[in-house]
Design the sequence.
C-alpha cells in the first residue's frame, strides 16, 4: 500500500471517529431520541397479527422495522446508538456504492455527506424513521446490482427486475435509488454498444419508476402521496422536503460522477485527492460539517415543548416548571402542562401568575380542537380530575389518532378498572402484554383480573371512586372549564376540580364568582389562603369596600396587604396611568394577580355553538 | 421482515410440542359442575351449516386443553393444545356441520391443571338446516368519538376466514366511508357514501358498474341513512342534522337529531323527491325501510322540538314512533302516513326498522329515548309480527346496546352489532330466527385468531348480509370516488318546495390526524 493511501485511510478513519463521536453526542444529549419518540410514538406489538397489515403494502416492512426500533428511543442513549447505526449504515453502504461505481476504488470522503444529510433530517422531531430505515437497504440493493453488472446479461436483467420489485415492497420510496443505480449498472455493463446501453438504461429507469403505478389502485386520479409512493422525498411528511431530495440526488449523482471519473484515467483530481494535504482538508471539511449540524439543526423551541410533554408524562412536575423557566415562550399545550405541574406541586394558587400566562383560559384547559393532537394528554388530565368518562373519551380519541400506545392502554386499563368494566380491562391488559417494553405494566391488572374481589380492594381504584361523581351531567365540549363546576358541585371532595375552578375564575377575571366559592375551601385541608387568592380578595375588598380580611376562616396575610399597598402606591405615583406604570409594575409585581388583572387581555370564553349544544343545561 | 413474529410462533409451537409430546389425552377426569368460560361465548348457540369454524379462547387457566366436538352421527373432532386459544380444523369442521345439519353438536372442554384433567359441563350447538348468506360487509373503524382516522369497508366471507377491503383509507388518503346498503342482499346492487378525501358523494353499483352520484340538492344536504327498494330502482334516504354530545357518567356518547327528513332517490331518472308528509317541518323523520314487496315505506318519526336550546331532561323525552306510508312502485306516489307503533304505547323510542325478506317480520330497535342507538345501552332488538301486529323483545338481545341489524336473504338469520362483550366496541353477532320470529342465542363473527376479541379495538358498523361477493375491487371504488369529473349531480323534483334559509348542517364526525 502506498504512503498516500495509508495516509488517506488513516485520515478517513480518524474523521469517522470524530464524526460519529460528535453525532452520538448530538443525538443523545441534544436531540434526545426520547423526545422523537414522544412526538411520534409509533405503536408496536410483538404478535404476528400486528405484523400482518405491514406485510400488505409497499413500505410496510420498513415501517414495521422503524416502529420496532423506535420503541428503544425511550432510552435516549440506546436511541442515539440506533440513529448512529442508521447513519453509519448509510455511510458504509454509500462508501461501497461509490467505490463500486468507480472502478479504481478510491476512498471517498464524499460518503460522509449522505449520513450528514440524514443526521440533519433525523434531528427533526417529525422525520419518519421508516424513511431512514429504507436508505441503507436501498444502498445495499444498489451495491448488489453494481457488483452483478458484469455477469451474464440474460441473468442480470431478471435479478435487476426482482431487486427493484423487492426493494419497492420492502422500503417503498427509497427504492428510487435502486432504480437509478440499476440504470447506471446497465449502462456500465460490458459488451454492449453505447446505443444499446442508453436504450436499456432508459427503459430500466422508466419501467422501474413507473412500476408503482401498476400497483396504484387508481392511477391518474389519485394523488401521488399515497402508499404507492410512500417515503419518496416528495411525500415524506416532513417540513424540509429539500433535504431528502438532496440526499437521494447526491447519492445518485455522486455514483454517476464516480463512474465517469473512473473512466477518465488521467484525472489529476484523483491523484491530488490522495496526497495528505488534501486528506486534511477533507477531514476538516467533514468535521466542519458535523459541527454545523450540531450547532444549527436543533429546533430549541420544539425540543423544549417536547421536553415539557415528556416531563408531564413522567409526572416530573418540577421538570416541567424548570423547562418553562428556561424557555418562557411556551405554547398553549405547554401552558396546560404548566398548570398541571403547578397543581400537582401544590402551587397553583401561589405561583400560577409567576409563570407565563399568555394564553389565559386556553392555557389552563385548551379547547378540543387544540387537544386533538394531544389527546392522550387530555385523557391524563381528565383522569387526574376524576372525570373518568371524559378521560375515556380522550383516550379513545388518542387510539384513533395514534393507535393503541402503551400509555393509552394503561390509561384505559385504569379507567376500566375504576368503571369495573372487566372485559375492556382485560383487552387493555392483553394488549399491554403484547408490547415490547411495557409488558410489566399489565402485571397488577392481570393478577386482579383473576380475582374479582381484589380489583374492588385496590387502593387506587377505591381512591378514584371516592372522587368520582354519582350523577350524570352533559359534558361541555366547547367550554370544558364548565366541567370544573359540574364536577365540583357533584363531588365537593374533588380538590383538583375546585382548584382549577378557582384558577379559571381568576384567569377569566371573574372575582365575584371566585369570592362566591371561597368558603368552599373549608372542604380541603388548607392551612392558609394561597397568595394569588389573597391578591384577588384584596382587589375584591377594594372594589366592594369590604374591610373584613377574613375569608373561609383565614386572614389575608399582612405581607400581601403590604404588597398590595405598595402596588397601589406605585400606580398612584404615575397618576393612576397604567401605561406609564407598566415597566415598574412588571419589574416589581409582574408575578402577581394584580399585574395580570391590569395588563392581560384574557377574557371569558363563549360557546359559538350554543344554539345547538347538547350540553345546554349540563349544570342543572 | 417476518422473522420476529414468525420466530415467536415457531418457539411457541416447539415449546408446546415439547410439553405435550407423548402424553395421552384426557382419559380420566374430574367433573366440574360449571360451564367453561369461553370467549366469544358460543355455548348453547345455534349456527348455520355453512359457517366457518367458531374458534374461541378458553378463559379457564390450565396447562393443557382438550376440546371434543361430536355429532350425533358419531363423528367428532378432537383438539388438544397447550394454549387457551382453540383453532378448529376447517375441513373437519365443515364435514361435521354437513353431516349434522339440522342436528346438534356436543362440545366438551377438558382443562388440565396441576396434573389433573377437569371436564367442564358439556354444551351443545344446534346446527340449523338453513344456511346464512355467504358474505358480510361491514365498516371497521376505531373507537368513534369526535374524530375518525383509519376506516375500512370490509367484505368477509362467512364460510371461511377470508376478508378483503372494499375500501381502505390507508390506500387513498383521508376518505371516510359511511352508510352502505344493498338491494335485497344483492352484492351487485349496492351503494356507499363517501366524504372528505376526494369529495362527498355516493358510489352506486349497478351490476358492478360504479357511478359517483352527488346527492346534494337545494332541498337536502348529502343523503344519509339509506334503504334500497327491493327492486333496486330507488333508494329512500334520511337526511339528518346530528348533534353529538357526551355524558359524564355511563355511556359517554349520545346523539340528538336536530332536523331530519326522508327523501327518495329514483335511480333511472336520477331525481330526488319527497312529500310534505315525509319532510314535514314539524316532524323529525328518519330510518326509512321498505317492506319486502316494496309497497310500504316504514320509518321513524318524532315531533320536532320547538327549540334546541333545551336541558338534557327534555332531550330525554324525544321518542320516535314507527310510522309507515303506502307506496306505489308503478307511479312512485306515496299515500298517507300512519303510525304503526307509537312511542306512547311502548314507552320507548323506536329506530332502525328492517323487514324480513319473506315479509313476515319487522325487526327494530327500541331504547329509552332518541334514535341513534349504538350509543344507548338500553337499545334492544324487537321483533314485530307484521300479520298480527304483536311485538316482543328479541331473545337474542343483551343488556348492552344492540343495533344495525340486517336479514339473511332466506329470513332465517339476522346479523346485528352488539356491545354485549365489553360495552364499548360493537361486534357483529348472528342469530337464528325461527318461523315464529323467535330468535336464538347469537354467536359473534368468527375469527381465525381465537384471541381476536380479547385484543380487538375496532368497531364493526352496519354489518350487511349479502348473497355473494361484491363484484368490484378496491381499485374500482377508489377510481369512482376520485373521478369527480364524471360525478353525476342529482336532479331535484321540481314539485319539491325548498324552504328559505336552508341551513347547512355542521359536520359531526371530523377527520383526525393523517
Sequence:
Amino acid at each position: 500500500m502506498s504512503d498516500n493511501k495509508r495516509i488517506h485511510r488513516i485520515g478517513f478513519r480518524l474523521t469517522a471517529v470524530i464524526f460519529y463521536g460528535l453525532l452520538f453526542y448530538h443525538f443523545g444529549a441534544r436531540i434526545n431520541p426520547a423526545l422523537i419518540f414522544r412526538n411520534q410514538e409509533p405503536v408496536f406489538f410483538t404478535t404476528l397479527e400486528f405484523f400482518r397489515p405491514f406485510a400488505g403494502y409497499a413500505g410496510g416492512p420498513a415501517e414495521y422495522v422503524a416502529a420496532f426500533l423506535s420503541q428503544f428511543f425511550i432510552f435516549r442513549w440506546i436511541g442515539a446508538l440506533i440513529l448512529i447505526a442508521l447513519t453509519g449504515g448509510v455511510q458504509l453502504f454509500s462508501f461501497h456504492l461509490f467505490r463500486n461505481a468507480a472502478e479504481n476504488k478510491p476512498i471517498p470522503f464524499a460518503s460522509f455527506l449522505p449520513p450528514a444529510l440524514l443526521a440533519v433530517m433525523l434531528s427533526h422531531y417529525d422525520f419518519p424513521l421508516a424513511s431512514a430505515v429504507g436508505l441503507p437497504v436501498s444502498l445495499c440493493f444498489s451495491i448488489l446490482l453494481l457488483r452483478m453488472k458484469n455477469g451474464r446479461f440474460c441473468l442480470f436483467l431478471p435479478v435487476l427486475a426482482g431487486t427493484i420489485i423487492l426493494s419497492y415492497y420492502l422500503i417503498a420510496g427509497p427504492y428510487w435509488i435502486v432504480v437509478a443505480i440499476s440504470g447506471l449498472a446497465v449502462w456500465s455493463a460490458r459488451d454492449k454498444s453505447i446505443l444499446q446501453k442508453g436504450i436499456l438504461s432508459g427503459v430500466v429507469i422508466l419501467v422501474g419508476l413507473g412500476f408503482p403505478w401498476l400497483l396504484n389502485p387508481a392511477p391518474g386520479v389519485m394523488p401521488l402521496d399515497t402508499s404507492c409512493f410512500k417515503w419518496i422525498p416528495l411525500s415524506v411528511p416532513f417540513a424540509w422536503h429539500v433535504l431528502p431530495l438532496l440526499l437521494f440526488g447526491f447519492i445518485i449523482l455522486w455514483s454517476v460522477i464516480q463512474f465517469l471519473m473512473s473512466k477518465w484515467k488521467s484525472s489529476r483530481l484523483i491523484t491530488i485527492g490522495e496526497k495528505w494535504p488534501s486528506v486534511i482538508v477533507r477531514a476538516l471539511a467533514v468535521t466542519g460539517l458535523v459541527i454545523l449540524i450540531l450547532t444549527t439543526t436543533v429546533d430549541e423551541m420544539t425540543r423544549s415543548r417536547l421536553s415539557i410533554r415528556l416531563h408531564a408524562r413522567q409526572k416530573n412536575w418540577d421538570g416541567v416548571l424548570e423547562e418553562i423557566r428556561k424557555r418562557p415562550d411556551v405554547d398553549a399545550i405547554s401552558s396546560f402542562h404548566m398548570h398541571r405541574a403547578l397543581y400537582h406541586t401544590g402551587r397553583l394558587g401561589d405561583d400560577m401568575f409567576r409563570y407565563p400566562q399568555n394564553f389565559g383560559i386556553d392555557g389552563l384547559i385548551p379547547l378540543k380542537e387544540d387537544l386533538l393532537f394531544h389527546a392522550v394528554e387530555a385523557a391524563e388530565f381528565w383522569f387526574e380530575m376524576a372525570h373518568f368518562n371524559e378521560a375515556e373519551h380522550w383516550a379513545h380519541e388518542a387510539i384513533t389518532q395514534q393507535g393503541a400506545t402503551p400509555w393509552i392502554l394503561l390509561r384505559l386499563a385504569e379507567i376500566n378498572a375504576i368503571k369495573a368494566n372487566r372485559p375492556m380491562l382485560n383487552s387493555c391488559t392483553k394488549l399491554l402484554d403484547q408490547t415490547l417494553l411495557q409488558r410489566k405494566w399489565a402485571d397488577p391488572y392481570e393478577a386482579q383480573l383473576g380475582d374479582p374481589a381484589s380489583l374492588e380492594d385496590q387502593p387506587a381504584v377505591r381512591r378514584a371512586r371516592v372522587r368520582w361523581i354519582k350523577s350524570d351531567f352533559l359534558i361541555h365540549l366547547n367550554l370544558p372549564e364548565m366541567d370544573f363546576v359540574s364536577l365540583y358541585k357533584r363531588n365537593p371532595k374533588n380538590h383538583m376540580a375546585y382548584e382549577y375552578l378557582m384558577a379559571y375564575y381568576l384567569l377569566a377575571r371573574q372575582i365575584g364568582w371566585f369570592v362566591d366559592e371561597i368558603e368552599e375551601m373549608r372542604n380541603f385541608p388548607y392551612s392558609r389562603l394561597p397568595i394569588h387568592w389573597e391578591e384577588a380578595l384584596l382587589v375584591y375588598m377594594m372594589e366592594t369596600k369590604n374591610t373584613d380580611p377574613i375569608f373561609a376562616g383565614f386572614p389575608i396575610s399582612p405581607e400581601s396587604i403590604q404588597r398590595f399597598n405598595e402596588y397601589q402606591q406605585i400606580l398612584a405615583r404615575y397618576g393612576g396611568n397604567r401605561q406609564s406604570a407598566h415597566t415598574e409594575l412588571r419589574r416589581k409585581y409582574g408575578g402577581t394577580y394584580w399585574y395580570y388583572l391590569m395588563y392581560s387581555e384574557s377574557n371569558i370564553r363563549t360557546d359559538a355553538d350554543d344554539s345547538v349544544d347538547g350540553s345546554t343545561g349540563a349544570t342543572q | 421482515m417476518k422473522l420476529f413474529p414468525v420466530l415467536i410462533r415457531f418457539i411457541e409451537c416447539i415449546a408446546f410440542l415439547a410439553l405435550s409430546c407423548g402424553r395421552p389425552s384426557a382419559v380420566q377426569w374430574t367433573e366440574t359442575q360449571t360451564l367453561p368460560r369461553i370467549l366469544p361465548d358460543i355455548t348453547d348457540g345455534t349456527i348455520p351449516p355453512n359457517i366457518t369454524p367458531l374458534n374461541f379462547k378458553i378463559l379457564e387457566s390450565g396447562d393443557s386443553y382438550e376440546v371434543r366436538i361430536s355429532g350425533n352421527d358419531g363423528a367428532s373432532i378432537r383438539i388438544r393444545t397447550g394454549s387457551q386459544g382453540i383453532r378448529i380444523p376447517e375441513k373437519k369442521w365443515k364435514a361435521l356441520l354437513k353431516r349434522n345439519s339440522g342436528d346438534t353438536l356436543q362440545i366438551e372442554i377438558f382443562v388440565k391443571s396441576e396434573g389433573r384433567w377437569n371436564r367442564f359441563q358439556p354444551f351443545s350447538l344446534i346446527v340449523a338446516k338453513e344456511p346464512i348468506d355467504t358474505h358480510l360487509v361491514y365498516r371497521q373503524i376505531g373507537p368513534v368519538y369526535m374524530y375518525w382516522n383509519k376506516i375500512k369497508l370490509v367484505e368477509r366471507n362467512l364460510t371461511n376466514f377470508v376478508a378483503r377491503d372494499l375500501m381502505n383509507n390507508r390506500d387513498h388518503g383521508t376518505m371516510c366511508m359511511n352508510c352502505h346498503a344493498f338491494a335485497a342482499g344483492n352484492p351487485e346492487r349496492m351503494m356507499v357514501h363517501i366524504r372528505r378525501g376526494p369529495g362527498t358523494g355516493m358510489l352506486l353499483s349497478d351490476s358492478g358498474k360504479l357511478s359517483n352520484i352527488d346527492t346534494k340538492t337545494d332541498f337536502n344536504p348529502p343523503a344519509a341513512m339509506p334503504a334500497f327498494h327491493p327492486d333496486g330502482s330507488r333508494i329512500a334516504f334520511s337526511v339528518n342534522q346530528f348533534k353529538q354530545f357526551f355524558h359524564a357518567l355511563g355511556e359517554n356518547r349520545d346523539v340528538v337529531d336536530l332536523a331530519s327528513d326522508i327523501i327518495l332517490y329514483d335511480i333511472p331518472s336520477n331525481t330526488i323527491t319527497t312529500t310534505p308528509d315525509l319532510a314535514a317541518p314539524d316532524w323529525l323523520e328518519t330510518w326509512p325501510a321498505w317492506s319486502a314487496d316494496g309497497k310500504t315505506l316504514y320509518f321513524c318519526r318524532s315531533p320536532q322540538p320547538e327549540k334546541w336550546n333545551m336541558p338534557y331532561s327534555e332531550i330525554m323525552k324525544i321518542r320516535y314512533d314507527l310510522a309507515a306510508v303506502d307506496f306505489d312502485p308503478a307511479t312512485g306516489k306515496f299515500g298517507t302516513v300512519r303510525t304503526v307503533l307509537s312511542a306512547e304505547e311502548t314507552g320507548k323510542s323506536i329506530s332502525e326498522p328492517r323487514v324480513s325478506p319473506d315479509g313476515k317480520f319487522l325487526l327494530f330497535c327500541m331504547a329509552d329515548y332518541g334514535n341513534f342507538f349504538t350509543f344507548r345501552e338500553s337499545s334492544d332488538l324487537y321483533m314485530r309480527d307484521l300479520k298480527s301486529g304483536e311485538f316482543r323483545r328479541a331473545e337474542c338481545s343483551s343488556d348492552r346496546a344492540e343495533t344495525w341489524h340486517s336479514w339473511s336473504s332466506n329470513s332465517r338469520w339476522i346479523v346485528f352489532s352488539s356491545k354485549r362483550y365489553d360495552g364499548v366496541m360493537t361486534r357483529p353477532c348472528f342469530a337464528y330466527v325461527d318461523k315464529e320470529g323467535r330468535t336464538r342465542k347469537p354467536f359473534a363473527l368468527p375469527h381465525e385468531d381465537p384471541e381476536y376479541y380479547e385484543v380487538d379495538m375496532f368497531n364493526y358498523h352496519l354489518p350487511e348480509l349479502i348473497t355473494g361477493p361484491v363484484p368490484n375491487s378496491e381499485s374500482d371504488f377508489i377510481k369512482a370516488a376520485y373521478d369527480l369529473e364524471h360525478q353525476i349531480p342529482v336532479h331535484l323534483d321540481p314539485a319539491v318546495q325548498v324552504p328559505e334559509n336552508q341551513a347547512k348542517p355542521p359536520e359531526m364526525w371530523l377527520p383526525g390526524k393523517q
